[in-house]
Structures are given as C-alpha cells and as structure tokens.
C-alpha cells in the first residue's frame, strides 16, 4: 500500500538508529574501502547504514569525527587502522560498542579482527619452493611496521622448513615503487644468485618488475615475483599480472560488522581477537616459473 516505516519512531522504540560509524586512517582506501564493503554486506540484511570518516592519521581530526558520530547516536563503531600495528583504544571514550579492524586495539578486552602476516609470508615461501625455486630474496617494506617484520619472519620460516635460507639478507625500505626499483637494481648488480624476488607489497613489486625487465630479464622464466596485499589496480595491471597474498579485507569488514551486531544484541563474543587467514592468488608472475 506504499507504507514507509518512520525510522525515527522505530529508533525511539528499539533504542537503535540503524547507523554505524567507521573511522579510518587509511587515506588511499586500500584497506578501508573493501572493509567498508564487507561491513555493508553484513549489515545489509539488518538495514544498517555505515558512515565513513577519515581521520587522516590526525588524533584531533579523529576525536572530532568520534564526537560527531556519537552526536548522531550511532549504534556502534568500527575503527580501521592504516597499518596492522596495535593502536590506542577508543572504547573508554564512547558509550557504544567498538570493533577494531585490521589494526587491533592495545586493550586486550576490546574486540578486534586482524590479519596473519606470518602465515602470509609462509604461503609465498612455500609456493616458490614448490616451483623448484631455491635462490629467493626478499625486498621488504618499512622495518618499523609489524607487517614488514612478520612477513619476513613467515618467509624465513617457510624456507627453513625446506632446509633453505634467503639468498641474501632481507632489504627493508619504504612501501613504494621507487624503493622496489632501487632495491632490485642494487640486488641484480651484486653477486647474489637470484631466481625469485618476494616483494613486501604490490606497490614494491611493481618497481621490482620494472627494474628486472629493464635489465632484459623475463618474468617469471628468469626471475619469479610474488608480493602481498592483492590490491586489484596494481596486481591485474602489472605486466605480467602479479602473484599476491589476499588478506581478505572484505571478510575482515564482514566479521567486524557481525561482531559489532553481536555486541549490540548481548554479551561480547568469547574470542576477543579474531584472525582472518590469508590466501595466495597465483598469477603469471610466478605461475610459469
């Protein structure tokens, strides 16, 4: 009959507004956008809308967004970090449930959904060894990031399980194509025997590919390349397309939304930190090695 329920009246009755805030520091949307889509997928059946706010890594801006969202009577919050290092808890500042996605809370009593970077490193290492590759090097990202250290650790553990080690010490740098190019050029000009490069991220890997191909090397026949993040604009547009670890950011968003819904309906779940396992997406940069 064309009747539309009055949302305000419903919220007064249920004490719910049907809105959730998502605060992020991920300026590029590399993590926050798929997490947002996953959360919206989970909330869709319950007619919950998500307000996205970008804190830009600024505590003052984040505090402003926090106050604005609480002022709008959101039912809960999802906080997304730009890096997987533990961050300061906001839970004590707000009267609503909070779930932390990608970057866990420093408070062990908070709900967090995180990735497994050590397992990601193992997946890449095992894949390359299974191809018969033995001379593997790792061009990593910023050493101050837990992601860089844990991916390195996973690679080393995978090789050690096969009685292998890296062909040269891991090279830590920045998360940029420029670093990937410079590190690869330095590596190839040295004496190390290399038949595979594990890049710390897809952006680094793009630089690795460019530098290797400029030297006339074929990918993957001469050097196989694999990386992390499975960021679609970079992996599919690479030549050849990149083998990369997918951390399941949409699933992280979905689980964060589900945990938040559980927290709204009753006691919090028994497991306060939940890990979403990664998967390796194999493409041409290593498939023909």
From TrEMBL:
Superkingdom: Bacteria
InterPro entries found in the cross-reference section: LacI/GalR-like_sensor, Peripla_BP_I
SUPFAM superfamilies per the UniProt record, alphabetical: Periplasmic binding protein-like I (SSF53822)
Key words, A-Z: DNA-binding, Transcription, Transcription regulation
Domain Transcriptional regulator LacI/GalR-like sensor, chain residue ranges per copy: 126-286
PANTHER family per record: HTH-TYPE TRANSCRIPTIONAL REGULATOR GALS (PTHR30146:SF109), LACI-RELATED TRANSCRIPTIONAL REPRESSOR (PTHR30146)
Protein's name in the database: LacI family DNA-binding transcriptional regulator
Record lineage: Bacteria, Bacillati, Actinomycetota, Actinomycetes, Micrococcales
């Amino acid at each position: 009959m064309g009747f539309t329920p009055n949302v305000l009246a419903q919220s007064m009755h249920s004490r719910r507004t049907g809105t959730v805030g998502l605060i992020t520091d991920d300026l590029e949307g590399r993590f926050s956008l798929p997490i947002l889509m996953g959360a919206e997928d989970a909330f869709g059946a319950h007619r919950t809308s998500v307000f996205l706010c970008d804190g830009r890594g600024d505590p003052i801006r984040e505090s402003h967004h926090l106050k604005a969202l609480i002022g709008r009577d959101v039912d809960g919050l999802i906080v997304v970090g730009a890096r997987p290092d533990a961050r300061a808890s906001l839970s004590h500042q707000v009267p609503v449930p909070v779930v932390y996605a990608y970057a866990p809370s420093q408070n062990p009593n908070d709900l967090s959904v995180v990735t497994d970077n050590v397992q990601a490193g193992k997946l890449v290492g095992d894949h390359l060894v299974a191809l018969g590759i033995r001379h593997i090097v790792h061009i990593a990202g910023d050493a101050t990031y837990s992601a860089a250290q844990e991916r390195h650790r996973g690679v080393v553990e995978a090789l050690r399980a096969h009685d292998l080690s890296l062909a040269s010490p891991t090279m830590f740098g920045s998360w940029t194509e420029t670093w990937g190019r410079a590190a690869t050029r330095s590596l190839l000009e040295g004496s190390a025997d290399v038949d595979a490069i594990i890049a710390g991220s897809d952006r680094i890997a793009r630089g690795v590919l460019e530098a290797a191909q400029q030297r006339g090397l074929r990918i993957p026949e001469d050097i196989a390349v694999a990386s992390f993040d499975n960021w679609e604009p970079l992996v599919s547009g690479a030549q050849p397309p990149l083998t990369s670890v997918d951390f399941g950011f949409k699933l992280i968003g979905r689980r964060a939304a589900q945990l938040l819904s559980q927290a709204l309906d009753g006691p919090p779940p028994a497991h306060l930190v939940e890990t979403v396992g990664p998967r390796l997406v194999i493409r041409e940069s290593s498939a023909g090695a």
